[in-house]
Design goal:
315 residues; 5-stranded mixed sheet; alpha/beta
């Protein structure tokens, strides 16, 4: 049996053909190029699906169904994207439109939920019963698996873990609330913190400013970590502050859900033990269950961007 998973993002559309062993045997992609009409995006998704299926040396007759992971609030029962700020749509009947194009039953799920399911089935949370996946990107995404099933609440908009407040009256988040975890622990937040630290240094003595060629627009999520590893004190301070904020939210998640596994994905997770080592130290110190024999395993999500494709194909 083969299924197709689509990761519909604000930047790229990626489709993958997934087999019964959760292997992606072929992929295809294109730019999302938003904003543009719903029909145009569906045409693009249909095209990359057909391209991926052809690359797998299969036909559409070999495909059982299609799953789509999308950022935003998704109702899996009605199969409607109720709102997706990154795609500029509301109440989008995406499943129906894709069925018209491909004549295959289509399901839809929030992209972070799909990624969590992918890690649960084939990645770092495989073999667990309860798991949480956190994605550190433009925002902070969350996916929760309880007893092997996606948890999304009574209105299918649960697991927005990035929007719990960790600093009262703190920095304003994109959602309009102040002090959200996302405003302190996302890659966007790390870049903001790095730029602020550079601005507080004398330019002639700033390691990080020199590292980006004097152009603050070149600062990214690696800049402070690279500086830290080079022995730069400002880089060390930025990373330490960022990890404290990240750990605060992770401890909240662990205290609430007590998952078997909590896996962290996104570009910042590529720092590996440079990130996880200090994180574990803080978590072990401050978690509620510090004296319990069984503890949550904190690790890097192993599937990367493939998690969302595999999860979407298996919803």
């Amino acid at each position: 049996m083969y299924r197709v998973g689509i990761d519909l993002g604000g930047t790229n559309i990626v489709a993958g053909v997934v087999d019964d062993e959760y292997n992606i045997i072929a992929k295809a992609n294109c730019k999302t190029a938003v904003p543009r009409p719903e029909a145009d995006i569906c045409d693009s998704m249909a095209a990359v699906v057909k391209e991926a299926v052809a690359a797998a040396k299969l036909t559409m007759d070999d495909i059982d169904y299609i799953g789509i992971g999308v950022p935003g609030a998704v109702n899996p029962e009605t199969r409607i994207i109720e709102t997706s700020p990154n795609l500029f749509f509301q109440n989008w009947e995406v499943a129906r439109m894709m069925e018209e194009r491909l004549n295959k039953y289509t399901k839809v799920e929030n992209d972070a939920n799909a990624a969590a399911l992918g890690e649960f089935l084939a990645g770092s949370a495989k073999g667990s019963k309860n798991a949480v996946a956190i994605t550190l990107g433009t925002g902070v995404g969350g996916g929760i698996i309880i007893d092997g099933k996606i948890y999304s609440g009574s209105n299918y908009a649960g697991a927005e873990l990035g929007h719990m407040v960790i600093v009262k009256d703190g920095i304003e988040c994109g959602c309009g609330r102040k002090g959200c975890w996302e405003a302190y622990a996302s890659a966007t937040a790390l870049i903001r913190m790095t730029k602020a630290a550079i601005r507080n240094e004398k330019p002639e003595f700033s390691y990080m400013l020199n590292a980006v060629g004097g152009d603050l627009d070149q600062v990214n999520g690696k800049t402070a970590f690279d500086a830290m590893l080079a022995g730069d004190n400002t880089g060390k301070a930025v990373v330490a502050e960022y990890i404290e904020y990240l750990a605060t939210g992770l401890i909240n998640v662990i205290n609430i859900f007590q998952p078997d596994v909590l896996c962290i994905g996104g570009g910042i997770a590529n720092q590996g033990e440079n990130l996880l080592g200090p994180l574990r130290t803080i978590i072990e110190r401050d978690r509620f269950t510090k004296h319990n024999e069984k503890q949550t395993k904190v690790c890097v999500a192993t599937l990367g961007n493939d998690a969302g494709i595999i999860g979407a194909a298996c919803i």
